[in-house]
Amino acid sequence: MDDKQKAAWDKHYEPLIADFKSKNLQGEELAQWKYNQYMRDYLSSIQSVDDGVGKLLDYLEENNLDENTIVVYTSDQGFYLGELGWFDKRFMYEQSFRTPLLMKYPKEIKPGTTIDDLVQNLDFASTFMNFAGIDIPSDIQGESFRKLLNNTDTTWRDFAYYTFYEYPGEHNVNRHYGITTKRYKLIHFYYDEDNWEFYDLKEDPQEINNVYNHKDYQDIRTMMHQKLDDVREKYGDSDALNQKFLQKSLEAIKARKNKKRQAH
User: Fold this and answer.
1) CATH fold of 158-264, please?
2) Is-contact 148 119, C-beta < 8 A?
3) Which of 13, 97, 133, 186 has the most CB atoms less than 10 A away?
C-alpha cells in the first residue's frame, strides 16, 4: 500500500480492532463476531468488484466499444457464506464448486440468454482462442463453448470433473475428487480416509443427505463410478500424479519461506 491507501485501511480497521479488544469475547460470541466481520468484509469486496465492472461497461459504451468487445465476468471458484457450516471454498459442494460466469458479446450472444450446460474454467482458453481465430493446441484439455453461446451446439459434454489435492496444507481441506452431471454428484475423499459421497441434486440441492449406500441409487451410482473412471483416464488424473504435484508445491513453498528468512 502507498501512504494514502494505508491511511484509508487504518481508518476503517483501527476502530474495529479497538472495539474487538475491548469486548474480550469468548466462545460462541467470539465465533459470531468473527463470522459477521468476515461476511461484511467479503460482501464489501464483492460490491467493490461490481462497482468496478459497472465503470468498465460504462467506458466501453461511452467509447463505442461495447459492440465488438467480449466481456467476461467470472471467478476461480465459488464461496461459502456459512452454508453447511463452511466459509472460504475448495470443497466440491455446490456453493464453492459453482462459479459465476457472465458474458456479453452482442454480435453472437443474444441478450438475456441463459445456458445451463456444464462448462468449466479449463474451457476458457479454448473459447477465447476460438473467438480470436487462433488454432487450439491439441494438448489443451478444455473445449471451446462458443457454439453454446450462439446456440449452435447440441453435443456438449454432460459432466464436470473436480479434483483437490493440496492436503496436508494450510487450508486443511482433505483431498478429494469427483464428477457431477446436472442431477447427480459423486465425490471421493481419500489419502488418510476412504469415504464416498453421492447426492441427488434434484431431490437434495443443498447436499444434506449422502445417498451413496441408499438401495434406490445403486444402479445410478454404478453408472457414475464408471463415468468417473472414464473421465480420470481422459484427463490423465490419478492419486499418484496428485501426490507428485503436491510434493512439488510443498517444496516450492518451503523454498520461498527459506528465501524470505534469509532476506531478513
Assistant:
1) Arylsulfatase, C-terminal domain (3.30.1120)
2) yes
3) 186
> CA 24, 26, 32, 34: dihedral to nearest 10 degrees?
60
**Alpha-carbon separation of residue 126 from 58, 153, 192, 214 (angstroms):** 28, 15, 36, 39
CA 64, 66, 72: angle at the middle one, nearest 5?
155
- pTM score, two decimals? 0.83
Domain limits of the chain?
Answer: 1-49, 116-153, 158-264
Round to the nearest angstrom and report the end-to-end CA distance of the chain.
20
- 153, pLDDT greater than 80: no
Geometric angle at alpha carbon 155, from 135 and 181, rounded to 5°:
110
Whose CA is closest to 247, among 162, 169, 163, 192? 169
In whole angstroms, give the CA distance from residue 104 to residue 153: 18
- CA dihedral of residues 38, 41, 42, 48 (deg, nearest 10): 180
pLDDT tens-digit series, residues 108-118: 999 899 999 99
